Amino acid sequence: MTLRVLAAMSGGVDSAVAAARAVEAGHDVTGVHLALSKNPQSYRSGARGCCTVEDSRDARRAADVIGIPFYVWDMAEEFEREVVQDFVEEYSAGRTPNPCMRCNEKIKFAAVLDRAVALGFDAVCTGHHARLVGGRLRRSPDEAKDQSYVLGVLTREQLDHAMFPLGDCTKDEVRAEADRRGLAVAEKPDSHDICFIADGDTSGFLNQRLGSEPGPIKDESGEVLGTHDGAHTFTVGQRKGLNLGGSVNRRYVLSIEPVENTVTVGPRESLRVDEIVGSSPVWSGCDPLTEPFSCTVQLRAHGEVYSCRAWQRSGELVVRLAEPATGIATGQAAVLYDGDVVLGSATISETSFVGEGEEQPVPSV
User: Fold this and answer.
1) Is the pLDDT of residue 356 over 80?
2) Does 194 fall in a domain?
3) Strand-pair partners of 311
4) Does 170 lie in the same domain as 25?
5) Active site positions, annotated
């Protein structure tokens, strides 16, 4: 069946090959590049494959080679509101957001998809490395490039209008195909870091937005060990940048209290977490888990996968880990998997350590 497909073209190799594959599959494809900044020069420059002026030009050239119509959509206001401001507000509240995940949720598969459907398109095509099988999101065979985690926030309805043509191949295969197709982005480096922080200095960016406010760094007993220039520049699990001096044993950030502007530090073992509560759960691969279900959970992009039991309780996701994890920050996403199938996700709102090496009772639901 021929579909009208809107191909989101970032300017990188993945989205270019995805668009070409959609055309080859017989679909009626239109390319679109998202202009995400009112001042593109303020975003990362160089061959990054994300949001720069060069990327817009690379996307247009790729569309010309593929032979599809191409447009640029100005989504700077939506991006500033839904991604950049959210990023700042989350850090201000002592949480650690994932801006790429928020961009997928709020921009690429909300604002763009809404506009695409209104214009009569059937699906939005992207170059994400993930698979859609029977409407369910699955991991890519290329484990190093798998992006199912950052897509785990998508709803069933959004996935029904999504297309991931690269789901069956590795990144090396994508580059080789781009070269065969004569796409100039074949060897373009992958994008990394946060596109709207041009110099990669997250602390400096946050200080510019939120200001610098000195406060105490305390240990678990409340003793002041040092000072900082703003609690919003820290994240749970962080070790570098504490500047506590050689007389203090190695310490990690355990918690951040934004109201009191306090950072609490302690030994690595105090970072252990075996129970996680997540807010606003999204169930894309199954119905809400009303009873504890054995599965796995990923707690950060490219992070370790943990065996767990998970269930929904009073509108929240509860995850009980089989073995403790460390450095788990609120604001990140907990994405549940059954094998390689995404079951659902939630935003981490609470973490705790219930007990070590003991089988804990699961509360009734």
Assistant:
1) no
2) no
3) 318
4) yes
5) 103, 195
Say what the pLDDT of residue 241 is: 84
Are 238 and 344 part of one and the same domain? no
- Domain range for 326: 272-352
Q: Read off the amino acid at residue 21.
A: R
How many independent structural domains does the chain possess? 3
Tell me how far apart the alpha carbons of residues 307 and 295 are, in angstroms, rounded to a whole number: 6
Looking at 154, 187, 220, the residue that finishes a domain is 187
Closest CA to 165 of 3, 343, 329: 3
The packing angle between helices 13-24 and 53-66, to 10°, is 20
Is 222 within 8 Å of 248 (Cβ atoms)? no
Beta bridge partners of 215: 228
- Whether 301 is in a domain gets the answer yes
Known binding-site positions for ATP: 8-15, 34, 127
Give per-residue burial for 290-320: e unless 16+ CB within 10 Å, then b.
eebeebbbbbbeeeeebebbbbbeeeebbbb
19-33, 240-254, 258-272: range with lowest mean pLDDT: 240-254
CB of 181 closer than 8 Å to CB of 165: no
Let me know whether 283 and 240 are in one domain.
no
